[in-house]
Specification:
single chain, alpha/beta, 7 helices, about 55% helix
Length: about 210
């Protein structure tokens, strides 16, 4: 009957409102973190590394809240200088946000040389744009902004990584939710604004 439908609609609205509230709280965690740059690890040139980690964890959790799922990412129980940076679905992740695809690959290889057992329960996140550039290279293409020599080096680094880890590149290395530029301090207001819009839109779509 009509009353039952109205109650059902109201309950759904309240659930979505609560989910959006929790989602925006996760994003607020990022705002709180970046509002105190003196507490962020690294120099002005490298602070984006820890910023990328905090954004990845909280944005994943923001999306989980909207999907009415238990948050999947956490820093719980991880030291700030541990081999892994955070957990996603209980899998360990090390985040490498270096200025270009080849340097991100070099950092992944170096990390793997330091922690050879990491791949048993660990994976890597690199900037989303770099991941797709590397996938283009592996398809034999030369991405925009790459020279043939850069693409050749990129292929060599991927082969080195696959040979030393025993894993395919796309199994071991996965795209983060953000592009390299999006986690730089000057881009953060814009990136966070877009994230909040995306969460708001997602909540509206559910209703």
């Amino acid at each position: 009957d009509l009353k039952a439908i109205q109650e059902d609609t109201l309950q759904k609205l309240n659930e979505e409102k609560e989910a959006l509230g929790k989602s925006l709280e996760s994003l607020q965690n990022i705002r709180d973190f970046i509002s105190e740059p003196e507490h962020i690890l690294g120099s002005e040139l490298t602070k984006h590394g820890e910023i990328a980690e905090v954004m990845e964890v909280n944005f994943r959790n923001a999306k989980d809240h909207l999907a009415h799922k238990t948050p999947s990412a956490t820093f719980e129980g991880i030291g700030r200088t541990a081999p892994e940076d955070y957990l996603v679905d209980e899998l360990e992740y090390q985040s490498k946000f270096i200025q270009n695809a080849n340097d991100s690959l070099r950092h992944v290889i170096h990390h793997l040389q330091t922690y050879p057992d990491f791949t048993e329960a660990g994976r890597y996140h690199i900037p989303k744009d770099q991941f797709f550039e590397i996938m283009e290279v592996l398809r034999g293409e030369v991405p925009e902004g790459f020279t043939p020599a850069t693409a050749h080096t990129c292929r060599k680094l991927v082969h080195e990584l696959e040979a030393s880890s025993g894993h395919d590149f796309s199994e071991l290395v996965q795209p983060a939710n953000f592009r390299y530029q999006e986690v730089q301090q000057h881009s953060l207001p814009n990136t966070l604004g877009k994230m909040e819009e995306e969460c708001q839109q997602s909540a509206d779509d559910q209703i």
